[in-house]
Design goal:
- The complex is a heterodimer.
- Chain A has helices at about 10-30, 35-50, 60, 75-95, 110-130, 135-145, 145-165, 170.
- By secondary structure, chain A is an all-alpha fold.
- Chain A folds into 2 domains: about 1-100, no CATH class; about 100-170, no CATH class.
- Chain A starts with 9 loop residues before the first helix and ends with a helix.
- Chain B has 9 helices and 2 strands, in the order H-H-H-E-H-H-H-H-E-H-H.
- Classes of the chains: A mainly alpha, B mainly alpha.
- At the A-B interface, helix 1, helix 2, helix 4, helix 5 and helix 6 of A face helix 1, helix 2, helix 3, strand 1 and helix 4 of B.
Chain lengths: ~170, ~200
């Protein structure tokens, strides 16, 4: 049994992420994001399956690149591919890679599948409406001191704390 | 040194190079998120029960580091701050979108970026959450016509906190740093108390 390394000090991880985000701004003039990448993957898939469906619909076309290989030229999609690789390397190195469902001691596997799917769906809708998620609005917009980003951060964390007692059994 | 940053906008590197940087920066981001425990839904949700406040510590350390870095690179004249795109503000879509997102956050236990980290480290719940995300975005796009009006409402354009509050950029940063330090102090005390209990 391989030794599992402990998690990194959160302040150190945070400063590290801050340096990566700063480098992103200094080199490429943009921050990090996640939801934009998913929007691009979805728009490209829908346009591939049903090209007629996306015509004159900016909610899709805004996320379609104009090149032959739109996804391979999309900055956020490549960045998220990097996230997958980096997270995999980290999990393997730390001995934390394991195929399993993560849920609280009082919850069940079936319940966890339901919370994961429905939570993801709500976050998809919320992030689209807010034009970003914890990465794009939270970190990137937060560091740029955007007013809307800070409204998003306070609203998202505020509601999560408010609803937490209702979901206690799922987590602890 | 002249004002040469951001390198892509000033034409020093090409779009092709920027894609390689996307891969590298993304990998570093993913590595650090996993190292910080952000691929684990139990650790992230512990945040909302005052058991493990890593999320706030990581987020605020990162935001403060980047915000201070941007300020100083611009102050010494290497970075043209105006070339960095500021996300526009739409008050109500961002407040309500944030609330819907927050509900999804406590139900799902991971966020869009960290679900990728969880999935990459083998967590099935991370993968299922990602599928849910795609379903949510699809639903949003399909029903977009119904709330396109709301989506574009209460638009303020590109507004940053210094402008909105009518105070200087450096004063906002000072407030941000003090707030972050206060949050860290309270977080350490809360965790200490949870450990003793």
């Amino acid at each position: 049994m391989a030794r599992i390394r402990p998690y990194m000090n959160p302040y150190l991880a945070g400063v590290g992420i801050g340096v990566v985000l700063l480098l992103s701004f200094l080199l490429v003039g943009r921050g990090l994001g996640a939801t934009g990448a998913y929007s691009a993957v979805l728009a490209t898939s829908v346009a591939g399956i049903a090209p007629q469906h996306v015509i004159d619909r900016p909610e899709y076309t805004a996320f379609l690149g104009d090149t032959k290989k739109p996804l391979l030229n999309d900055w956020l999609v490549i960045e998220m591919a990097g996230v997958l690789i980096g997270a995999l390397l980290s999990a393997l190195w730390a001995g934390r890679f394991k195929v399993k469902l993560e849920y609280g001691p009082q919850s069940t596997g079936a319940m966890r599948l339901l919370t994961a799917f429905s939570g993801g769906m709500l976050m998809g809708i919320g992030a689209k409406l807010a034009r970003g998620c914890t990465s794009g609005q939270g970190l990137t917009g937060g560091a740029m001191l955007s007013l809307g980003s800070w409204l998003f951060i306070v609203s998202a964390f505020g509601l999560a704390y408010l609803l937490a007692p209702l979901l206690r059994k799922q987590w602890i | 040194m002249d004002m040469i940053l951001p390198l892509l906008e000033t034409g020093i590197i090409t779009a092709g190079t920027s894609l390689w940087l996307a891969l590298l920066l993304g990998a570093a981001f993913g590595f650090l998120l996993e190292q910080g425990g952000m691929g684990n839904a139990l650790k992230i949700s512990g945040q909302f029960y005052f058991r493990d406040l890593s999320v706030l510590k990581i987020m605020f350390s990162a935001i403060v580091t980047t915000a201070l870095g941007l300020f100083w690179f611009a102050r010494v004249g290497w970075l043209n701050y105006d070339l960095i795109y500021l996300l526009p503000t739409f008050i109500w879509p961002q407040v309500i979108g944030g609330a819907i997102f927050g509900a999804g956050f406590i139900i799902g236990g991971l966020c869009p970026g960290t679900s990728c980290v969880a999935a990459a480290s083998g967590r099935i719940d991370g993968l299922v959450l990602l599928i849910g995300m795609f379903a949510g975005i699809f639903l949003f796009n399909e029903l977009f016509a119904l709330f396109a009006g709301f989506y574009h409402s209460s638009s303020l354009g590109q507004v940053a906190l210094p402008e909105f509050l009518g105070i200087s950029h450096s004063l906002v940063l000072l407030i941000l740093v003090i707030t972050a330090l206060a949050i860290f102090r309270v977080a350490e005390r809360i965790e200490q108390r949870t450990l003793q209990a």
